[in-house]
Design a protein that fits this description.
- The complex is a heterodimer of chains A (about 575) and B (about 140).
- With about 575 residues, chain A is of the alpha+beta class.
- Chain A has three domains: about 190 residues, 4-Layer Sandwich (Aldehyde Ferredoxin Oxidoreductase,  A, domain 1), CATH 3.60.9.10; about 200 residues, Aldehyde Ferredoxin Oxidoreductase Protein, subunit A, domain 2; about 160 residues, Aldehyde Ferredoxin Oxidoreductase Protein, subunit A, domain 3 (Orthogonal Bundle).
- Chain A is about 40% helix and about 15% strand.
- Chain A has 22 helices and 17 strands.
- In chain A, helix 2 packs parallel to helix 21 and helix 7 packs antiparallel against helix 20.
- The longest helix of chain A is centred in the last third of the chain and has 21 residues.
- Chain A is globular and about 60 Å long.
- Chain B has about 140 residues and is an alpha/beta fold.
- Chain B contains six helices and seven strands.
- In chain B, the strands form two sheets. In chain B, strands 4-3-2-5-6 form a five-stranded mixed β-sheet. A two-stranded parallel ribbon of chain B has the order 1-7.
- In chain B, strand 3 and strand 4 form a beta hairpin.
- The two termini of chain B are about 25 Å apart.
- Classes of the chains: A alpha+beta (about 575), B alpha/beta (about 140).
- The interface between A and B is medium-sized, with 26 and 24 residues.
């Protein structure tokens, strides 16, 4: 088996048993690795158990490009039933963890059961052991990572939020890298799994090593030199604050306005104030990761989404506070997007009389800590916005979630196809499952049908087909695995996969794989209780906004969904 | 009457292009708010005889106010510089590659504020369409 080891390590935390299994070659060819392999393994082992049941497996995967020098491939996927959406959860993170996992001779971990007490998994060149993590239980993610990283280990850990079952708890690895969305940290916590440390020194088997290395170098060179890469290297992903705010893509005041001084949070300001250094993930030539200087200390810097949800969405123009809160959510192991949206929602509900004054949030720092430790009002907010709002009888149409997952900071009214992305994403409101805000400014892949169009004229077969192709290709990206930034032509990704694996796939087969992974994730969701009515977007983020944007009506949303389902060949009936 | 084809790049081509930009309603709208001159540079290569290898368009609020032709192309500068090989410029003008995608991938090399360019991605499309209205003769 080339490109992969064909080694899936199974760990039963209850019994302490560890064993390896392989999968058939046609599984690799169809589901590739990453999220595809994760969904396949989840389908195989899950018995539709509750997210916090010992029977809910948590699966961590690399992919055929991970562990190699192919640029932007230093990533891993975590797949499990999400406690937040109750559907299939998936989260993707960078750093060094995936690279080390693959270099240790492991393609994936299937973790089942529940330990008697806190444990950590230590993997050294494929040798797996469980160690007592009692002394780390209660610690921040940074402390846990620092405790386990000596010896060159890459560590993924949960913080107090995961331990306390916060439904949007993250798994943090390396330098503030987060598998943030869908509550994978809470699943770790339910299994008493504090951390996983891994190091690997094995060379990944490649079908045509010389050809692969030559191809990787060529791709790395043009990605490094590209203007957008240079921009990300200099300013971080916050560069989108500057571009997106002018396009109406950065929502303010809980998605109700675009009236905000965005310049106060520009990427240039961030650079001027905190003198950041670039911190690239493994095999990355872009280096959007930040290390900022705050009050003399070096801390991990925020990415665009975090600046956006703790900035405009909260109506907060103060960058220093955003850096502090970013550090706090990373330390405590919370998803920054969900945390920011939940807090901004509560403020909006109180301001508009939907919640009593008792729910007023005077200190965001305190609210973050209360959520992580489930103290006071934080205990309610820790269940996520959708459950919190339902408990208080708040109209669903002002609740910024899809399938229980909080909507991130790309406004669907700025790029209307993004509304379909949010509504139909299998993991809930996710901006990374068909990034139409990027496609419609020119991040296209014409050869596989991902085409730029007018961002407001979207209700045609051609435009919706572009989204479908973007969704399918995203499954490929998250399976091989490569980062969302860089975005090399699909032909170059395909070539790398073929050189690594020896498969002789063409673009058509690669895209069929992407569609098959979408289908598989959807089938799993149906088994877990998905209904068509969950593919919907609340009125809050569809109302007219700004001076010229009329928003997206119910009729338009229904028409888009019907077109999408017809083109997908799926049935849709709004319940 | 059939337009005589004009060689790309040449002074005549650039002047015509500047006129086409100002005449384009799509560019007038999409380029509103843009204030900076852009220096366009064609990379010189052996065997390719270029009449000029750099030109500046003074773009303002969706109009092309004028074109300039630096005496020393290598030393010329502007707030934004977009540079590419001859073949990549040809692909962009012929619509074979998306201009923003070409910038993201390095087929068009850019110096200047990338975020600002991303804001004006629609204007970039309109600029390509305006270039396509110039009857162009390519060198190869």
């Amino acid at each position: 088996m080339e490109g992969n080891w064909n080694n899936i390590v199974h760990i039963d935390l209850g019994s302490g048993d560890v064993w390896s299994m392989d999968v058939e070659e046609d599984v690799w060819r169809r589901y590739v690795g990453g999220v595809g392999l994760g969904a396949y393994l989840f389908g195989k082992y899950s018995r539709s158990a509750d997210a916090f049941s010992p029977d809910n497996p948590v699966i961590i995967t690399a992919g055929p490009l991970v562990g190699t020098s192919f640029p932007e491939s230093g990533r891993h996927e975590i797949v499990s039933r999400s406690p937040q959406t109750t559907l299939l959860g998936e989260s993707n993170s960078g750093g060094r963890f995936g690279f080390e996992l693959k270099r240790s001779g492991v393609d994936g971990l299937v973790i089942m059961g529940r330990a008697q007490g806190p444990v950590a998994i230590v993997i050294d060149d494929g040798s797996v052991k469980l160690i007592d993590a009692s002394r780390l239980w209660g610690s921040t993610t940074y402390d846990a990572i620092n405790a386990l990283s000596p010896g060159g280990y890459s560590v993924a850990a949960i913080g107090p939020a995961g331990e306390h079952g916060v439904l949007f708890a993250a798994v943090i690895n390396d330098n503030g890298r987060a598998a943030g969305r869908t509550g994978m940290g809470a699943v770790f916590g339910s299994k008493m799994l504090k951390a996983i440390a891994v190091r690997g020194r094995k060379q990944v088997p490649l079908h045509d090593r010389a050809g692969f290395l030559n191809h990787s170098s060529r791709v790395a060179k043009y990605l490094y030199e590209a203007a957008f890469s240079a921009s990300l290297r200099e300013f971080g992903s916050s560069v989108w604050m500057d571009a997106g705010s002018a396009l109406g893509d950065v929502p303010a005041h809980y998605f109700t306005s675009l009236a905000f001084n965005y310049d106060a949070l520009s990427s240039t300001k961030l650079k001027e104030m905190f003198n950041p250094a670039s911190r690239p993930c493994a095999s990355c030539v872009i280096g959007c990761g930040r290390e900022e200087r705050l009050n003399g200390a070096k801390i991990d810097g925020p990415e665009y989404e975090t600046v956006a949800v703790f900035g405009p969405l909260l109506g907060n123009p103060d960058l220093t506070s955003i850096l502090e809160w970013n550090h706090l959510v990373n330390s405590l192991g919370l998803d920054s997007i969900s945390t920011g949206v939940v807090i901004s929602a509560v403020r909006y509900f109180v301001d508009n009389g939907l919640l009593g004054k008792g729910y007023e949030i005077s200190s965001v720092s305190q609210a973050i800590q209360d959520i992580a430790y489930r103290k006071g009002m934080g205990n309610e907010l820790a269940d996520g916005l959708e459950r919190f709002a339902a408990r208080h009888g708040i109209d669903r149409d002002v609740v910024a979630t899809v399938k229980g997952l909080e909507i991130p900071a790309h406004d669907p009214r700025a790029f209307k196809l993004q509304a379909l992305t949010y509504a139909t994403s299998t993991r809930g409101a996710c901006h990374l499952q068909g990034e139409m805000y990027a496609v419609d400014i020119g991040a296209t892949q014409e050869s596989i049908g991902i085409k730029q169009g007018d961002r407001w004229s979207v209700d045609t077969d051609e435009r919706v087909m572009s989204l479908i192709k973007a969704q399918d290709y995203r499954q490929v990206q998250n399976s091989v695995i490569i980062c969302t930034y860089g975005y090399p032509p699909a032909e170059d990704v395909l070539k790398a996969v073929n050189l690594a694996t020896g498969f002789q796939m063409d673009l058509e087969e690669m895209m069929r794989d992407g569609a098959a992974i979408m289908d598989l994730k959807r089938e799993i969701n149906e088994r877990l209780g998905w209904t068509p009515s969950m593919d919907w977007l609340p009125t809050l983020v569809r109302r007219g906004i700004g001076e010229e944007n009329p928003g997206i009506s119910d009729e338009e949303m229904k028409s888009l969904l019907n077109r999408y389902y017809r083109l997908r060949g799926w049935q849709f009936s709004r319940a | 009457m059939i337009d005589q084809k004009i060689t790309f790049p040449s002074r005549e081509w650039v002047s015509r292009y500047c006129s086409e930009l100002s005449a384009s309603e799509e560019y007038n709208k999409a380029g509103k708010g843009w204030k900076d001159p852009i220096l366009f540079r064609v990379e010189e290569e052996a065997g390719l005889s270029l009449e000029l290898s750099a030109f500046v368009l003074n773009l303002m609020d969706g109009k092309c106010l004028s074109a300039e032709f630096p005496v020393d192309a290598a030393k010329a500068s502007a707030p934004f510089i977009i540079q590419a090989t001859y073949d990549n410029w040809k692909k962009v003008i012929e619509g074979k590659i998306n201009p923003t995608q070409a910038m993201l991938m390095g087929q068009l090399k850019v110096k200047g504020n990338m975020a600002l360019l991303l804001r004006y991605s629609t204007a970039a499309i309109a600029m390509v369409k305006a270039a396509q209205r110039v009857p162009t003769q390519f060198l190869r």
